[in-house]
Write a structure and sequence with these properties.
By secondary structure, this protein is of the alpha+beta class. It has a single domain (about 5-80), classed as GIY-YIG endonuclease, CATH 3.40.1440. The protein has three helices and three strands, in the order ββαβαα. The protein has helices at about 25-30, 55-70, 75-80, and strands at about 5-10, 15-20, 45-55. It has a three-stranded antiparallel sheet with strand order 2-1-3, with helices on both faces. A hairpin with a 5-residue loop joins strand 1 and strand 2. The chain is globular, with a radius of gyration of 13 Å. The model has no long low-confidence stretch (mean pLDDT about 90).
Length: about 90
């Protein structure tokens, strides 16, 4: 089953949330309903600003972890602007 890496941006405090899932529609709905403890702390609403598909959830989770380790807002914003994560994680 495919996996996805996605980035949400809080419209209230302009912070980013990075996640991965097998079902992007279900996961976004869970975020909207406040079922994610981190996103529920966002001020106001959020928007999905990036989503990339992978061949399986294992690969998506590796990329999610790598992306979170970058801890660089400029890097995250380049990913969003470019529309692609250019890292090949095996």
């Amino acid at each position: 089953m495919v996996g996805y890496v996605y980035i949400l941006r809080s419209l209230g405090n302009d912070k980013y949330y990075i996640g991965s899932t097998q079902n992007i529609v279900r996961r976004i709905r869970e975020h909207e309903l406040g079922k994610s403890s981190y996103v529920s702390r966002f001020i106001g609403t959020f928007e999905m600003v990036f989503c990339q598909q992978y061949i399986n959830i294992g690969m998506a989770r590796k990329v999610e972890k790598w992306l979170k380790l970058q801890k660089d807002r400029d890097f995250i914003e380049r990913v969003i602007t470019d529309g692609v994560i250019k890292k090949n994680v095996n």
